[in-house]
Specification:
It is built from 17 helices and ten strands. It is an alpha/beta fold. It has three domains: 174 residues, NAD(P)-binding Rossmann-like Domain (Rossmann fold, 3-Layer(aba) Sandwich); 113 residues, N-(1-d-carboxylethyl)-l-norvaline Dehydrogenase, domain 2, CATH 1.10.1040; 77 residues, N-(1-d-carboxylethyl)-l-norvaline Dehydrogenase, domain 2. The strands form two sheets. An eight-stranded mixed β-sheet has the order 3-2-1-4-5-6-7-8, sandwiched between helices. Helix 1 crosses helix 2, helix 7 packs antiparallel against helix 13 and helix 11 packs across helix 12.
């Protein structure tokens, strides 16, 4: 199927950025919001993104041409001619149900209905329609017009043709399109969650301070440390995701207690001016570690079980989860590292890090940590098999 025109439902942060990404690659885009007020805000979001692009050296004439490809609406009147719809409404299954029931009614029977959900089940969303074979996950990463990764997630009923069309469509946007089998949080956010949690456990245990953890992670492989990243995304969102993953995957995804304490104290990060760091009210610039975090940590009275902090410990749970994901055939082995690098800005993916450390050494470290900390470090059977086979890497 050839995709010629696209619609985006929802013009918040992600919807606006997706619309810009589409227009940049020549697609005419209809952006729909529920009310005139929300549409006005959504179009203003698009203008802000384009203004930043111009400030960073973008050609004003070209950017205006792209903006002219975007049309705003509050109705489904023009959706009958749309080839692909991308839903980007809030992560609430009831809201998504309402949207997909409407899309099923107002779009032509051959139109593909995609969700930008970062975690909700595609099969469940597809069941809200009479065309589950045409429903798929298209998970862009924020900001969508800059980030290179798109996860393409088929549900149980999604057709091969729908998946292939969406992979080609994402590639036409100059994105790295990776097919990911349906699972909670999909691929990149699932692995990210293990690393983010471990950073909080290390802080909670008193193995290292806020800046020490972030600086070590940055020097090792990531552009932004895990605690600064948590402040960017919001502790409340982080807690909701952590609870969801725990519900779906069990004990190895147990949320660190400090996260709940941060939310209860309204220390959510940049949006409240204080999280793991303090932020200037006017500029929003990071000022330094938040001293109130130390008070919360004292109240938790976490037992210290290790003598020292090693940066590899942050990434061992991510590496282990990567092997579990490969066991489950969530993605092709050759796609895993590129997806993590494109989605998170890592300089090396977890499989490469594992090979650099040594698979045997990774297994030995996980086994030692498993004895001390329990389930969250239980080694993946696939990692064990690679070590038994004396393999030096997955690829």
């Amino acid at each position: 199927m050839q995709v010629s025109n696209v619609a985006v439902v929802g013009a918040g942060t992600m919807g606006a950025s997706i619309a810009v990404a589409l227009a940049m690659r020549g697609y005419p885009v209809i952006v729909k919001e529920a009310t005139d007020e929300l549409l006005e805000k959504g179009l203003a979001n698009i203008e802000k993104l384009n203004k930043k692009r111009i400030e960073k050296g973008g050609n004003p004439e070209h950017i205006q041409e792209e903006r002219n490809r975007i049309e705003g609406t509050t109705s489904y009147a023009k959706f009958a001619d749309i080839d692909l719809v991308i839903e980007a409404v809030p992560e609430n299954i009831d809201i998504k149900r309402s949207v997909f029931e409407d899309l099923d009614e107002y779009t032509n029977v051959n139109a593909i209905l995609a969700s930008n959900t970062s975690s909700l089940p595609i099969t469940q969303i597809g069941a809200f329609t009479r065309r589950p074979d045409k429903v798929v996950g298209l998970h862009f990463f924020n900001p969508a017009h800059l980030m290179r990764l798109v996860e393409v997630i088929p549900g149980l009923e999604t057709s091969t043709d729908t998946v292939e069309t969406c992979l080609q469509f994402a590639q036409s946007l100059d994105k790295l399109a990776v097919r990911v089998d349906e699972c909670a949080s999909f691929l990149v956010n699932r692995l990210l969650g293990r690393y983010m949690n471990e950073a909080l456990f290390c802080l909670q245990e008193g193995l290292a301070g806020i800046e020490e953890i972030d600086n070590a992670a940055r020097e090792f492989v990531v552009p932004v440390g895990p605690l600064a990243l948590r402040d960017m995304n919001g502790a409340d969102i982080g807690l909701a995701v952590a609870k969801f993953n725990y519900q779906e995957y069990g004990e190895r995804f147990t949320p660190p207690a400090i996260l709940s304490e941060m939310v209860d104290a309204n220390m959510l990060g940049r949006k409240t001016g204080a999280g793991f760091y303090l932020y200037d009210e006017k500029s929003g610039q990071k000022q330094g570690p938040n001293p109130r975090v130390a008070e919360l940590l004292k109240s938790l009275k976490t037992e210290k079980k290790s003598d020292s902090f090693k940066v590899e410990r942050l990434f061992l749970p991510m590496i282990n989860e990567a092997f579990i994901a490969l066991q489950e055939r969530v993605c092709a082995a050759e796609d895993l590292d590129p997806a993590l690098m494109a989605g998170l800005g890592m300089r090396r993916g977890p499989l490469t890090i594992a090979a650099d450390i040594g698979l045997k050494e990774c297994l030995e470290m996980l086994e030692d940590l498993h004895k001390t900390y329990g389930e969250r470090f239980r080694p993946a059977p696939l990692l064990k098999r690679h070590v038994w086979a004396r393999r030096l890497s997955v690829l």
